[in-house]
Request: fold
Amino acid sequence: MTNNASNAPSAIILAAGKGTRMKSDLPKVVHPIGGRPMVCAVVDACLAVGCSRIVVIVGYKQEDVRSALKGYDGKYNIEYAVQDQQLGTGHAVQCCAPAFEKTNFAGDTLVLCGDGPLIRPVTLEKVLKRHRDHKASATLATAVLDDASGYGRIYRGADGKFKAIVEQKNCTPEQLAIKEVNPSYYCFNTRDLFASLKKVTKNPVSGEYYLTDTLSLLLDEKKTVEVIEAVPPEDVLSINTLEDLAKVDAIYRSRPAVQVPAGVHR
Reply:
């Protein structure tokens, strides 16, 4: 996908977590996939769809994440936002607000996880197209899994439109049977994203602020939230152990390399 400067999307990549189950002191996103830190695969996918700026949220051992992305320095517009406390995905994205304030919250922004290296540019292209065709405030890409255990379920109304993401622990028996899940691929109107984040309240159980809460807030304001089933099940594979890492690495290496455009200086 090519974008001119005025409509090129931005991207936010969440990369501040520890990844405690990896039995390593390294941040999860720094573990190698295809011979490089896995976060590089997410950055490459964003660059391949024409993102003009990428803001990477760092926190735990942030120097390791910055070092992992050093190869992009001077060629691509990679910025960093620091999440000092682990207070959830909503708080993490809110930490990017100063970076986007500089550009008056213009345009559209992809929000993605740094530990999802099987992400495909074609998926992001589909999300961006649906988002823009429907002039949505938010668009999320979903996956349909045979075993949806552990994932938030996509609850749609009778009209097929998005109603809510229901976390597994809150699902009714009927909702547990839903196979469509949220793999955390989002596109937002940037202004709507940061306006809604200001209204997100702390979850009373976890003490965290959730990015997904913005979706219900946008719906309450009669704004458009689109859903597109666009993520192949294979791409949703979680990396929580070294065995998972090896499995995803084999899949990643079996695919054609993502074509990243020539570097564009700041």
Observations:
- The chain has a mean pLDDT of 92.
- The chain has one domain: 10-254.
- The longest helix spans residues 121-133.
- The first strand starts at residue 10 and ends at 14.
